[in-house]
Amino acid sequence: MKTLITAAEVVDLAFGGTSNLRPEEVSEATILAAQRKFLLPVFGAALLEEMLAGDHSALVEDYVKPALALYVKRLLLPALAARVGTAGVVRYVGDGIAEVDAPTFRRLLRRTKADADTIVDAIVDYVELNAESFPSYSPSGNIRYSVNIDSGIVL
Predict the structure, then answer these.
(1) Quick one: pLDDT band at residue 149, thresholds 50, 70, 90?
(2) Which of 78, 128, 151, 153 has a CA that sits 20 to 30 A from residue 111's CA?
(3) 150 in helix, strand or coil?
């Protein structure tokens, strides 16, 4: 399947390009999962396919990629905190670093998703204000109009 963003772009956009994270640690499966989990329910299959085909390239470059990179980061962070190896699931403990406590980690996850959601909300506003340029977008198909989530609780 095709993705809207590369692993190198994820590292650059979501991790500032200065982390020790290498692009090969960002799997295509994680990018696809983020794309399907977070973008597909908002934009719908038709508009997402147009983006994948190269349409709306300025929107994708300026807004969709940064949001998708943050969603990928949200999915990657738990895996980066622990590794699966021959000894099972282990966490890295190195010199001069310490793992964050669980509440701080949860806040980081929520903040990362909230930042991505804010960008997606701006994209939706733009798409809806310029509906003639996005005829394949259907507001009725946008999950954000049918599900309300407050503080992690589906209302």
Answers:
(1) low
(2) 128
(3) strand
Q: What residue spans of the chain are helical by DSSP H?
A: 7-15, 28-34, 40-52, 57-59, 65-81, 102-129
Query: Per-residue b/e over 50-78, b at no fewer than 16 CB within 10 Å?
Result: bbeeeebeebbeebbbbbbbbbbbbbbee
| pLDDT band for position 7 (cuts 50, 70, 90) | very high
Which residues, 6+ apart, have CB-to-CB distance to 1 below 8 Å? 32
What distance in Å separates the CA atoms of residue 17 and residue 9, rounded to the nearest whole number? Answer: 9
Q: Do strands 83-85 and 88-90 pair parallel, antiparallel, or not at all (unpaired)?
A: antiparallel
Angle of helix 40-52 relative to helix 102-129, nearest 10 degrees, comes to 60
Nearest to 25 by CA among 1, 4, 9, 7: 7
Could you state, in order of their start, the residue ranges of all structural domains in the chain?
Answer: 7-154
